[in-house]
Amino acid sequence: MADILERKAYDTRPLVYNLVNPDVPQALTGATVTITIVDPGGVVVRRNAPCEVTNVATGEVTYRPTSDDFATPGTYQIQWLATYEGGSTARWPYDSQSQAKIHPTVANSGPVPNYVFLDNGDLVTTDDFAPVTVE
Fold this sequence. Notes:
single chain, three-stranded antiparallel beta sheet, mainly beta, Immunoglobulin-like
């Protein structure tokens, strides 16, 4: 099953991922980790971009995207690669690629969606509000 991350277009909040093997955290002692991101049209946006290993023992890594990394709304494919001292490598996830579903921002042209992502990442929909009668 693919991991799915949801963000709005141009979002630059860090991507945090826990590398597991298959359900056990992957120790990253001596490893460097990179990310490859492919946009909805199949174009490689980032190839082997460096990530920060934020917790060696639990396999937590962080990638800090630029605003251009997720500029086009749609489903992106993401793959993480760890390279260990000595040259051995491992890729995540094993069963498929992670996905990032990127939603249009309000500034994008086109129909206005009935939802919006707040800066803190929360999703708000029109269902969250009661109708208001203005007199």
